[in-house]
Amino acid sequence: MITQAKCKKIIDLAIAHAGDCVSDMLVTVFEQDQATSRFANNEMTQNVDTSSITVTMYVNARNRTAVTSTDDTSARAIKRAVDKAIEKAGVLPHDSTTLKVLKPSNWTEDSAPTFSRYDPRIAALGPDDRLARVKSIIEVARRGRLKAAGIFATYLNTFAVGNTAGLFRFDQQTNVECSITMLSASSSGWQKGFGCNLDTVDPVALAEGAASRARKSRNPVYVRPGDYTVILEPSAVLDLVCFLYGDFTGTEHWYETSSFYKKIGKAVLGDNITITDDASHPLQTGFLFDDEGMNRKKVTIVKDGVLKTPVKSRRSVKYLGGAPTGHGAAPTASEGEYPMNIVVAGGDSSLEEMIASTKRGILMTRVWYVRDVDPNTKLLTGMSRDGTFLIENGKVTRGIKNMRFNQSVIDMLKNVVEVGQPVLAAGEETFPAVVPPMKIEGFRFSSRTKA
Amino acid sequence: MNKQLALYALDVARSLGASYADARLIKTVTETVETGNLFVVYAGESENIGLGIRVMVRGGWGFATARHLTSQGVVFAVTKAVEAAKASSRILNGRVKMAPEKPHQAVWQSPFNIDPFKISTDDKVALLLECEKLMRKNKLVKQTSGLLTFTREKKLFVNTEGSDITQTFITSGCGIDAQAGSDEHYIRSWPNSFGGQYESAGWEMVKRWDLLGNAERVAYEAVAVSKARQCPEMVTDVILGASQLALQIHESTGHPTELDRVFGEEENYAGASFLTPDNLGKLQYGSKIVNLTADATVPHALGTFAYDDDGVSGQRVELVKNGLFVGYLTSRETAHELGLPRSGGMMRATGPGFTPLVRMTNVSLEPGDAGSLQDLIADTKKGILLDSNYSWSIDDRRHNFQFGTEIGWLIKNGKIVEPVRNPSYWGITTNFWNSCDAICGPSEHVFWGIPTCAKGQPCQAIGTGHGAAPARFKNTKVGVAKPAEDKPKGGAHSKSRSGHHHAKLPRHNRHCAGGSK
User: Fold this and answer.
1) Is B508 helix (H, G, I), strand (E, B) or coil?
2) pLDDT of the residue at A449
3) How far apart are CA B321 and CA B325, in angstroms?
4) What is the CATH number of the domain that holds A179?
5) Residue in A with minimal Cα distance to B392
């Protein structure tokens, strides 16, 4: 694990070496130690323990920006990367839109959050600790005469930013991740947990949840494709809603490519939908400052269905007005900004209440391979997977074969009739976010499949 | 490249009890130039070096990466790998065994004519900006962009069985695109969508794909599709353009023939496969004219190499012969498990930070006898030509797929009559391949490169190649993905040049989201 002092030394070295050859310079250091125990068929199949680091130099030489990166933190390699960036910048065309780097005063005006997302217990876990957890998962599988597949993984992430204006930010956080699929001969169930604190992920509870879904969906039946009332568990909600994240960025509004272009102040989703980006939310993960070193501010993007504002970088506010929100990516035009800490507000309904109030519908645990097929309407396609159930007369009655949906996520969020309590959900299409389960009317399935 | 360090890693692994170990010392340099709307939006170069160490102890696998390329760094990493392997060995159904492979000593260089790293950055920038200017001559074009990316990778592989292999790869990619439309935007790209074409080749491939010569046509077609009507819903004969067919092969042939997937090792993420061993040699996967192979030896294709990361030489393996399912993509471990005498040599990792997995090489549809694309269109009474992928999705067993393309061209009485927008098609894998009744000939056959095939946990993105010539599929369901008629339309779309909003993720957060998987 790299220290704050080491990060500062690398950044200072790069900046000192660049000297007067640059107008401005930003240096980032991102290190990740990752350990993953992977299992399938009730045995360990992979066990990896890796470490990576990337030092990136963003060099502005008279309004020409070039980028180089290296994973070699020796002084020689850092200097070589700086020299290469300066050389590259020198041959690029002049760009009058280039921004100066962020001054420290730009972010110290806001008080930086003081809480930590570093759990030393996660950082201390070794292969035997991961093995114990995998064993406990497989024990659940064996008790239920099921097969388990999945991962138990730990991450230690370090991020530092420094620039020629004297800014320096540093943070470290831990993550724990556990994803479990339980399989019977005819069915499967899935659960996934993610968090910054070891206590937030309980492998046995996740295993029991996945096993329960596998048992309940045994011998699934076909149902006819069509429009259904669906209840989406949080991971399924996340992997659909994430396809709007790009539309919530200032750069896409600036480029006129957001689905919500010219709709600020207008109702774009149902009046029971409120979406914020809040890096400080207690359930959230991630660093509290952006790639330029600015604090990530809480932004209300959609309030009661009305579009309030996208997140904005220092670059996009030049064209959109307003203030940057601390969501900027690296200072090149290709990156823009991104909402990294989405929170979809919850409602009063429990999952059980949603099921009880449903005469006929479908409960989906997980969606798979979601892609946008008509970007103009945000029409998405994808499959259900690992726990798809028929609801009849207020009860989950049996598992059903997986189905393909073709559904606009914008329309989906106009047709939400019940919302549950939000949790930190983890899916496969994006990073984890805080979202609730939802009950939705008129969700369109277009075809079915064998499994 | 310090070979002694890699050999030292093997010695340390042996001394700590490993029955097998391999080490991959890899240095990679990547240069990328990206322009958008007449600005240079990214000009950069990255350099990475690391040592990946895989060990087997008491039949269990462990893997670690040495970031610090010193004796101490190697001992630290090997110790971690051995500890991980020991933990693995305590929860096995049986010790891992591998199909035999004789040791190889070799030095290999992927063929190229012009070193792309010797072309100046300003020449690269100038090419893309000139393409953008040409596309913008059409005033109805709203967004333009271009991308050039080049990689040089030098990889040393050594293992405890005596293999000592050095391979150097030069990979190049190029692409441009234009978006047009007023309230709604539509994209056309060249030579392929999602960043363009990728090959195991040098700057000569950029010249061959003639970005400048195609820029104005790309702009014209973007405008044409923006003015076109929605693709109608129908069952009709579909001609897939070669680049779209490449992705169809990737998703519905390549992935389901990965033997680790078949054995359930990818159940939790990428899924499993309907091509279970009881189907081998029995299942009529496609029509009699369908022949699919995995060939790592094709010059200039993205999935080409001399030796895989098991130390097995690259090979040509039949997957589907005359429509019959006959083969898998294998590793030494999975080949042994299936009872095969030798691995097909498909084990690869994405750099030194990842353990190898069974991956596609160049999984291709062999050319047929239907002549040129024009011949095939002329032979089609009623149908649609679908070209340049936009959307792709398939279920976790690889049965049910749905693809969308940038453009469709309706065909009537052997002629193209009209472009349509948002075309999509849907099918079940074996039904679809059994409906294939015509494949164009060798003159239309191209090895397309997909640079971001995602698999594994932690997720790895790797390049694969797919040879394809346009082919026709009878009675296919088209236009299934259309906006609901009774629902209001959204505004302009959020499609970036990479086509998918996840491409907007900060570079270090992209992982595998949005790639092919």
Assistant:
1) helix
2) 84
3) 7
4) 3.30.2290.10
5) A371
Residues A149 and A231 in one domain: no
Output the CA–CA distances (angstroms, integers) from residue B197 to A253, A350, B239, B446, B451, in the order listed.
29, 49, 21, 11, 9
Model confidence at B400, in pLDDT bands (50, 70, 90)? very high
Q: Is there a single domain that holds both residue B323 and residue B397?
A: yes
The whole-number pLDDT of residue A333 equals 58
DSSP states of A285-316 as a string?
-S-SB-TTS-B---EEEEETTEE---B--TTT
CA–CA dist B30, B461 (Å, integer): 15
Query: If we measure between CA atoms, which residue out of A247, A313, A253, A295 comes closest to residue A275?
Result: A247
- Say how far apart CA A444 and CA A405 lie, in whole Å: 6
Per-residue confidence (pLDDT) for residue A45, from 0 to 100: 98
Q: Give the pLDDT confidence score for residue B504 in this predicted structure.
A: 37
Could you tell me the CA-to-CA distances from B355 to A75, B54, B310, B317, B457 in Å, in that order?
Answer: 29, 7, 10, 23, 10
Number of domains in chain A: 2
Which chain A residues in 302-331 lie under 8 Å from chain B, judged by CB atoms? 329-330
Last residue of a domain, one of B198, B227, B256: B227
Which residues are CB-contacts of B1 (< 8 A; sequence separation ≥ 6)?
B25, B27, B154, B156, B166
pLDDT for A330 equals 76
Using a CB-CB cut-off of 8 Å, the residues of chain A touching B492 are: 256-259, 261, 376
CA distance, residue A224 to nearest chain B CA (Å) = 15
**How far is the C-alpha of B28 from the C-alpha of B509, rounded, in Å?**
20
User: How does residue A52 score in pLDDT terms, banded at 50, 70 and 90?
Assistant: very high
Number of domains in chain B: 2
Same-domain pairing of A36 and A96:
yes
- For an interface test with A, the pick among B28, B49, B88, B453 (most A C-beta atoms closer than 10 Å) comes out as B88
Q: CA-nearest residue of chain B to A83?
A: B45
Q: Is the peptide bond before B191 cis (omega within 30 degrees of 0)?
A: yes
Is pLDDT above 50 for A127? yes
Residues A372 and A411 in one domain: yes
Residues B225, B188 contacting (CB under 8 angstroms): yes
* Closest Cα in chain A, distance from residue B69 (Å): 9
Q: Is the pLDDT of residue A253 over 50?
A: yes
Give the domain extent around B56: 3-227
Residue A429 belongs to domain spanning: 216-241+346-448
In chain A, residues 208-267 whose CB comes closer than 8 Å to chain B? 243, 245-247, 249, 251-252, 255-263
CB proximity list for A321: less than 8 A, separation 6 or greater: none
Residues B214-219 have a mean pLDDT of 98
Strand partners, B273: none
Residue B505 has pLDDT above 70, yes or no: no
B501:A246 CB<8 A: yes
Q: How far is CA B299 from the centre of its chain?
A: 16
Q: Any idea of the CA torsion for B276, B282, B283, B289, to the nearest 10 degrees? A: 130
Q: Is A385 on the interface with B (CB under 8 A)?
A: yes
B423's tokens: 């075309």
Instruction: Report the pLDDT averaged over residues B261-266.
Output: 98
Q: Is the dihedral of CA B493, B497, B499, B505 positive or negative?
A: negative
- Considering the domain boundaries, does residue A259 fall inside one? no
The single residue listed with the structure tokens 């081998």 is: B280
Q: Distance between CA B474 and CA B106 in Å, rounded?
A: 47
Residues B49 and B184 in one domain: yes
Residue type, B23: A
Instruction: Give pLDDT tens digits for B173-210.
Output: 999 999 998 778 899 999 999 899 999 999 999 999 99
| Average pLDDT of span B442-449 | 98
Between positions 100 and 129 of A, the ones with CB within 8 A of B are 126-128
B517: confidence class by pLDDT, cuts 50, 70, 90: low
